[in-house]
Design goal:
Number of helices: 7
Structural class: mainly alpha
Low-confidence stretches: none
Radius of gyration: 21 Å
Largest sheet: 2 strands, antiparallel
Oligomer: single chain
CATH superfamily of the largest domain: Winged helix-like DNA-binding domain superfamily/Winged helix DNA-binding domain
Mean pLDDT: 86
Strand order of the largest sheet: 1-2
Number of domains: 2
CATH topology of the largest domain: Arc Repressor Mutant, subunit A
Number of strands: 2
Amino acid sequence: MMEEGVGRSAILQRLREATTSMESAVLPSSVIPLLSLELTARQLKVLTVLVTTDGGTTASRLAQTFDVSLATMSGVLDRLVGQEVAARTNDPDDHRVRQVRATPLGRTVVRGLVARRPEFDDEVLAALTDDELAGLERGMSAIARHLGAADTSA
């Protein structure tokens, strides 16, 4: 149900403006977890790839992905394993191959940086009216359905 006299493009523009405003408002609290990490930029990038790679990958594939030597990638992985955000395991199909996976801690670290949404924290949501909460829930559910459909069609 669209607002009377307001076109779709105007609503989309207001949504973009609201999103930009929210991003600016939450940026200071969003960088705190990043600043508390003991990870270099390269380590964070590798960890993010591990978190988003189903079933893990190998050091050689990561080296190719990041266009670095295997020795360099092994050093990066040694530090990630040392911080317990990644783990090496034997490949069940080929015991000569070592798989690298993100640990639950590694997933939590990346989720806290990438997917954290302080604009949806409890104190923010508590300040909304019941009608606003219901509208937000309806819109978020629609977006989640669309993203789920897009994810399965990829």
